[in-house]
Write a structure and sequence with these properties.
21 strands, single chain, binds ligand LLP, 2 domains, alpha/beta, Lyase, Ornithine Decarboxylase, Chain A, domain 1, 427 residues, eight-stranded parallel beta barrel, TIM Barrel, elongated
Length: 427
């Protein structure tokens, strides 16, 4: 995060507050989020894309009411993909016209709620959904703005579970074989739907912008086909999210202005070649905004050297607050943050307190050789897909999210308690 520094005794502080104070006040583990950094990233995306484009923050990365307020104030729109995310967006006052509803199997209730609320866009993902959204819109007496999610057939260079534009996966309607063109025909035949554009999301944690270029080219190709076949020039395209962030020092992500220029240029060039007016562009970054803004603060509980192998450092959380290492082989860094140390490096594996050996937070990293129980360690870049994918495995209450801003720290999502867990257990 942006406003992180080390004080005199080597203690790390964020936004002017020391981690020891944070741990005392809020407990560990805790996600510590730098609000100024979050807002700065929103602004960087907004400014990079300018007034001719829209930036939809992907709420799945991390969403709560405070985040919705920041987005609203910084001029971003919001992509939601469930009834829960929609409810959070509406509860925090996001204007419905700035909300897009996603999902490959939206329930009838989710569709109804979104249409009734007046969301600005529903992104259609299947033939069945075309009828469902058309029916809901007709019932509410509105003409719902929709985009069609197109599968462009790009092999994104990322983990299999988070690649979404190759043919053999569940999202979207394929360009190849004509499913997308067929969906266009069906949507245009529905009076209660207004087809405003096409959507493509190729995957997540992607560094190579070439995949986005191929995606843009193919989406514009379909726009041209729609003009030729139906005489309609659709006014919008959305190229999704997926921009990678630095989890470790080896990663080298692109900046928003570079991404904006690449996408704008390719869309403009392809449209010119096809004789099409340039549509309004939108993107949906989640990780690139939220990811770098938070770290997870843990307390070391045990230190177990395995001679000839490595040292296992156990923390008071684990796969329940960060499933990404276990699920995607994700790489993370770690640092001793409560004090300075002059000790040499030791090879560690940072593990959690859960009952399985896959409960790894950081697979391979170095910590000072004198790292000991009671020390605080931090894992950076946990602002996206950590709290939002947290679980109650082993009946573990989920950690709070503490936002630091202007020298003050406040809880924006409180820590779960054992009472919270027991409340659901009504047997
Ligand atoms: N738009 C759509 C339609 C999406 O499906 C996603 C992510 C995004 C935007 C935002 O992607 P981002 O900019 O955050 O990469 N849990 C996985 C990531 C799953 C992403 C799912 N869709 C992880 O922890 O890596």
């Amino acid at each position: 995060a942006q406003t992180v520094g080390r004080g005199p005794g080597g203690e790390v502080s964020v936004g002017g507050i020391g981690v020891r104070e944070l741990a005392r006040e809020f407990g560990t583990p805790a996600y510590v989020l730098d609000e100024a950094d979050f807002r700065a990233r929103c602004r960087a995306w907004r400014e990079a894309f300018g007034p001719e484009a829209d930036v939809f923050y992907a709420g799945k990365a991390f969403l709560c009411r405070a985040v919705v307020r920041w987005l609203r104030e910084e001029g971003l729109n919001l992509d939601v993909c469930s009834g829960g995310e929609l409810a959070t967006a509406l509860a925090a006052g996001m204007p419905p016209e700035r909300i897009a509803l996603h999902g490959n199997n939206k329930s009838p209730r989710e569709i109804d709620r979104a249409v009734a609320a007046g969301v600005g866009r529903v992104v259609l993902d299947s033939v069945q959904e075309i009828e469902r959204v058309a029916e809901a819109a007709a019932r509410h007496g509105v003409r719902q703005r929709v985009q069609i999610r197109v599968t462009v057939g790009v092999e994104a260079h990322t983990h299999e579970f988070i690649a979404t534009a190759h043919e053999d996966q569940k999202f979207g309607l394929a360009l190849a074989g004509g499913a997308a063109a067929d969906a266009v025909r069906r949507v245009l035949a529905e009076d209660s739907l207004e087809l405003v554009g096409l959507h493509s999301h190729i995957g997540s944690q992607i560094f190579d912008l070439a995949g986005f270029e191929v995606s843009a080219r193919r989406v514009v190709g379909l726009l041209a086909e729609i003009r030729d076949v139906h005489g309609r020039e659709l006014p919008e395209i959305d190229l999704g999210g997926g921009l990678g962030i630095a989890y470790t020092a080896d990663d080298d992500p692109s900046e928003p202005h570079e991404i904006a220029k690449t996408l704008r240029d390719i869309v403009a060039r392809e449209c010119e070649a096809a004789g099409l007016p340039v549509p309004r562009l939108s993107v949906e970054p989640g990780r690139a905004i939220a990811g770098p803004t938070a770290f997870t603060l843990y307390e070391v509980g045990t230190v177990k050297p395995l001679p000839g192998l490595r040292t296992y450092v156990s923390v008071d959380g684990g796969m329940s607050d960060n499933i990404r290492t276990a699920l995607y082989d994700a790489e993370y860094a770690v640092a001793l943050v409560s004090r300075a140390s002059a000790a040499g490096p030791m090879l560690v594996r940072v593990v959690g307190k859960h009952c399985e050996s896959g409960d790894i937070v950081v697979r391979d990293a170095y910590l000072p050789a004198d790292t000991a129980p009671g020390d605080l360690i931090a894992v950076p870049a946990t602002g996206a897909y950590c709290r939002s994918m947290a679980s109650n495995y082993n009946h573990t209450p989920r950690p709070p999210v503490v936002a630091v801003a202007g020298g003050e720290a406040r809880v924006i999502v409180r820590r779960e308690t054992e009472e919270d867990l027991l409340r659901l257990d009504v047997g």
